[in-house]
Amino acid sequence: MPPKEENKKTPIWRSRKFVPVILQIIFLAIIGLLLWILIQNTMTGLRRIGMSFGFDFLNARAGFNINEAMIEYSTSDPYVRAIMVGIVSTLRVSFFGIILATIIGVLVGIAKMSDNWLLSKVASVYIDIFRNTPLLLQIFVLNFAVFLPLPRIQEALSIGPFYLSNRGAVIPWATLHEGSALWALLLLVVIGAAIWVYKWQMKREVEEGKNTHPFLSAIGTFILLCGAAYLVTGEGPFQLTIPAHTGAAVTGGLSLSTPFLSVLVALTIFTSTYIAEIVRGGVQAVPKGQVEATKALGFRSATAMRLVIFPQAIRIIIPQMTSQYLNLIKNSSLAMAVGYQEIVGVGNTVINQSGRTLEVIVIMIAVYLFFSLTTSLFMNIFNKKFQLVER
């Protein structure tokens, strides 16, 4: 018998298991070294001009006013409180901008694919105009050419319970009361029941081939259960305050300033054009065989879109929508151009007063990074729920 060959061990520098790990360690070490050099050079430069790096200045008195603060704030509060106001203002315009841009973008994207010639052309013109116009220019136009030329507050325009003037808009708003906590629990139960009814009716529609109107059934269930809860508790989930014009001012309701409206409307319109194209591309990426199958089964266009086409397109749409949401959050920094004091506007004021440029910039970077990572996390979770599970 031929002698047995001895097992030769693969050298570590040729191992497929250890070489990638070693390369990653070397890469991280290089990045860490570059960051260390950058930080050391920065600290040396600060010492040369007689400055130090630190965040102790945040406890100093701010001394400046913020026009539209969503949380309690006064000029005697510290810088950290002012920065918190800016963060909340950024979150406010970004949150409502994402919701409105998504709704409008989906509707415009579907309208562009409509068989109705007029509706399709209007959607196309809407997309072409606002997508190809700089966002900052849209903010300026809305602020200086649309909202500021409105009548003074004494002659505010009244559109039902809504009032418009050169100071902005006043809209009806809800305020909480003692029973709102109980209503929050009841609403969770009601929403759960409505979702169950929707799924039950959808299952019947698929199995029996009849139009059971699952969405309308869920809405009806929600309204009926809310009505029953109102009869039991004797009050609603909130108190609605309606604005009233007193001649010299508008009292009650929620006031929305002209800068806030300009930024919110511009962000909504600009982002919705990109979302509309994402929706159109996602729907058109669904195999044509799926569309033809719905026609062969006698589905109406709206039913086919709701039950077959859009659920498949959503898997393509979500990843690209995430990028647009992140762009909207970062584009909110343009609000300082018209005086809406979000994190960048407040940060610039803090820099001018304290002289701590580097520290404030680090705070602003951290805020946008946190918002972006949080948005990406939620969208990734949402995306996993729509992914196809392969066997």
Automatic annotation (TrEMBL):
Task: Mention one GO biological process in which this protein takes part, according to its record.
Answer: amino acid transport
- What are the recorded GO MF terms, alphabetically? transmembrane transporter activity
Transmembrane residue ranges: 21-39, 82-108, 181-200, 212-233, 253-276, 360-382
InterPro entries per the UniProt record, alphabetical: AA_ABC_transptr_permease_3TM (IPR010065), ArtM/GltK/GlnP/TcyL/YhdX-like (IPR043429), MetI-like (IPR000515), MetI-like_sf (IPR035906)
Protein's name in the database: General L-amino acid transport system permease protein
The record describes its membrane topology as: Multi-pass membrane protein
Domain ABC transmembrane type-1: from-to ranges: 87-379
Cite the PANTHER family for this sequence: AMINO-ACID ABC TRANSPORTER PERMEASE PROTEIN YHDX-RELATED (PTHR30614:SF37), MEMBRANE COMPONENT OF AMINO ACID ABC TRANSPORTER (PTHR30614)
Q: Where in the cell is it found?
A: Cell membrane
Q: Which family does it belong to?
A: Belongs to the binding-protein-dependent transport system permease family. HisMQ subfamily.
Please name the CDD domains in this protein's record. TM_PBP2
Under SUPFAM superfamilies, the record lists:
MetI-like
User: Taking the first listed entry, what is the main subcellular location of this protein, grouped into a coarse class?
Assistant: membrane
Q: Which organism is it from?
A: Alkalibacterium pelagium
Alphabetically list the UniProt keywords: Amino-acid transport, Cell membrane, Membrane, Transmembrane, Transmembrane helix, Transport
The record ties this protein, via NCBIfam families, to: HEQRo_perm_3TM
Matches recorded under Gene3D superfamilies = MetI-like
Q: Does the keyword Transmembrane helix apply?
A: yes
Any single Gene Ontology cellular-component annotation: ATP-binding cassette (ABC) transporter complex
